[in-house]
Amino acid sequence: MTEAILLVGGKGTRLRPLTVNTPKPMVPAAGVPFLTHQLARARAAGVEHIVLATSYLAEVFEPHFGDGSSLGLHLEYVTEDEPLGTGGAIRNVAHRLRSGPDEPVLIFNGDILTGLDIEALVDTHSASGADVSLHLTRVEDPRAFGLVPTDATGRVTAFLEKPQTPEEIVTDQINAGAYVFRRSVIDTIPTGRPVSVERETFPDLLANGAHLQGMVDSTYWLDLGTPQAFVRGSADLVQGRAPSPAVPGRCGDCLVMPGAAVAGDAKLTGGTVIGADAVVGEGARIEGSTVLAGAVIEPGAVIQDSLVGAGARIGSRTHLVGAVIGDGARVGADNELRDGVRVWCDAVLPAASVRFSSDQ
Question: What positions does the domain Nucleotidyl transferase occupy (predicted)?
């Protein structure tokens, strides 16, 4: 198994304002762009060649990762002129693959943090002789996901997208967003139009008698599609709950990046990350949060389960709980923002202007 496709073209709409200036896979998690964790884990599993399927803010990726040699990889980049969906993106990069028709190609979604045993998924694919193999995981509430029931041998029997009624929920197994394709199957995906592997490619393959194999791996798994999930995923990486060889430091209660200045009596807990050149003032308390590069947290501020964007400033004694502050925003002293409130990039909130805001 020497090559993979990483799908990194999504707009990350649910993550705004984090993704206004930065594509979702490049938002820092545990001190480095999230994509770094995926690339490092793929390399650790023996993958050597990865093609990145880019679209939104595509120009950001290559200047950061280059040819991939610093990670021991060979990276290539293919940009969609128009969004093509998951299946269309896979087909659009097929000309950069090197595998023979019957060889496996690993495919990742660029917004999933997982402890998946990649080598076991590839081994399952090879041993079963499948056309496509899917990583499946179990969740308590599967209504927001695509259900994938299997038979006793692990062979997929159906695809059920986002069921809502109890009768529709026939399994707790969901599509976890990592696949192994037989190379020749990729060439059957239509070209030049949007295609969803979840809603079109997989059901069509199943209807035509193809062998789709599921492998249940219920180790760590988190969809980073919302700000709250992204902050949690970053904290889990810092604390070692989510595995990654790319975390730039020891696992623990906090991670402070080079150039950051943290006051001696500030308290950082719960997997907090302080980005490069950020400043944390005296008496500040930051728990389970991400403070991106160049941000300033003034004395006495309290930040819990929140994300503070690059270059933002949080005023003295301001309290954030479950909030997202966009890049360059200014939140004055003595404000209180809670329960999912989002402050847009470069916005300015005067001192003591907001005491509470409900979920938006």
Answer: 4-237
pLDDT tens string 92-147: 999 999 999 999 999 999 889 999 999 999 999 999 999 999 999 998 887 778 78
Render the burial of 126-135: b for 16+ CB within 10 Å, e for the rest: eebebbbbbb
**Percent of the chain residues topping a pLDDT of 90:** 81
The pairing of strands 290-291 and 173-182 is unpaired
200 backbone dihedrals φ, ψ, rounded to 5°: -125, -60
Q: What angle do CA 17, 19, 23 make, to 5 degrees?
A: 175
What are the Cα distances from residue 173, in Å, to 37, 137, 146, 163, 233? 25, 5, 8, 12, 21
The mean pLDDT of the chain is: 93
Q: Say whether the peptide bond before residue 17 is cis (omega within 30 degrees of 0).
A: yes
Mean pLDDT, residues 353-360:
63
CA 40 to chain centre: 14
Other C-beta atoms within 10 Å of 25: how many?
A: 30
